[in-house]
Amino acid sequence: MSEFKGTKGKWKITNNNLSEDGGFVMIGTDKHIWIAETKGCHVGTNNKEAEANAKLIACAPDMLEMLENVVSWYGKRDFKTNELYSSSFQEPLIKEAIQLIKKATEL
Question: Which DSSP category does 89 fall into?
């Protein structure tokens, strides 16, 4: 599977300045690398939606890593070579998870 080519490190909401009048939520890493900024309604129809979207974005690398771990653990592998068996042997959900990982990691 392809390696994630996005910003490395733990993503988190680094600044939450939303109010009824607007504001922003910034997403970055522990090394202060800026990843995204949601300004009020640009990433949602209201501030709560913008904040919820920011939380989802911040969790994305962790979710990708967990999905890769689940595929690795539950996917049918040849344990001598650690290679996945052909897709005809894969459980439907594992195949879907593999496709989702590819979608998230291939440019």
Answer: G
